[in-house]
Amino acid sequence: MTYAQLMAQAVKAREGAYMPYSQFAVGAALLCKDGTVYTGCNIENAAFTPTVCAERVAFFKAVSDGRRDFSAIAVTGGPAGSPSASDTAPCGVCRQVMAEFCVAPDFEIVLGSGPEDYAVHTLAELLPLGFGPKNLHP
Ligand code: THU
């Protein structure tokens, strides 16, 4: 699975976004170390706070299936009805969820508009000095 292929799955997952309030559609594709891919899209709610981001949907689907080891996540988003922009980055809450399961420094976050336009980041870069499992269980 190349990052271009993972990004293509994120673009496809974006089609499922339920975002009547923001009209901002996000897709994510989470690559497990065993090669399985879990996708997610943002799912909004009239009460606003129950809204979940695409990244967390992908993580929670995977974790609820017993997956714990992850290699990378591709994320893409932008206004509904338009192609993805290249600058949609995970929110702070999603970064914190990643920190729970992706303690290894090799977990990578692939951000871009599609298979031909993406950049690779590390979680350490996106969440410096984060609080994680190591703080509770040194
Ligand atoms: N959103 C995501 O799904 N992922 C991100 O990385 C940023 C924001 C969603 C949440 C909400 O449904 C919409 O985008 C606007 O914030």
List the helices and strands and how they pair.
Blueprint: H1 3-13, E1 24-32, E2 37-41, H2 54-64, E3 70-79, H3 92-101, E4 108-114, E5 117-122, H4 123-126, H5 133-136
Parallel strand pairs: 3-4
Antiparallel strand pairs: 1-2, 1-3, 4-5
The structure holds tetrahydrodeoxyuridine.
Describe the fold and architecture.
By secondary structure, this protein is α+β, with helices and mostly antiparallel strands. It has a five-stranded mixed sheet with strand order 2-1-3-4-5, with helices on both faces. The longest helix is centred in the N-terminal third of the chain and has 11 residues. It is globular, with a radius of gyration of 14 Å. The termini are far apart. The mean pLDDT is 96. It binds tetrahydrodeoxyuridine. The site of tetrahydrodeoxyuridine has 16 residues, from β1, α2 and β3.
Characterize the largest beta sheet: strand count, sense, and whether it forms a barrel: 5 strands, mixed
Q: At the fourth CATH level, what is the homologous superfamily?
A: Cytidine Deaminase, domain 2
- Report the CATH C-level class: Alpha Beta
Rg is 14 Å
Bound molecules: tetrahydrodeoxyuridine
Q: Work out the helicity level.
A: 25-40%
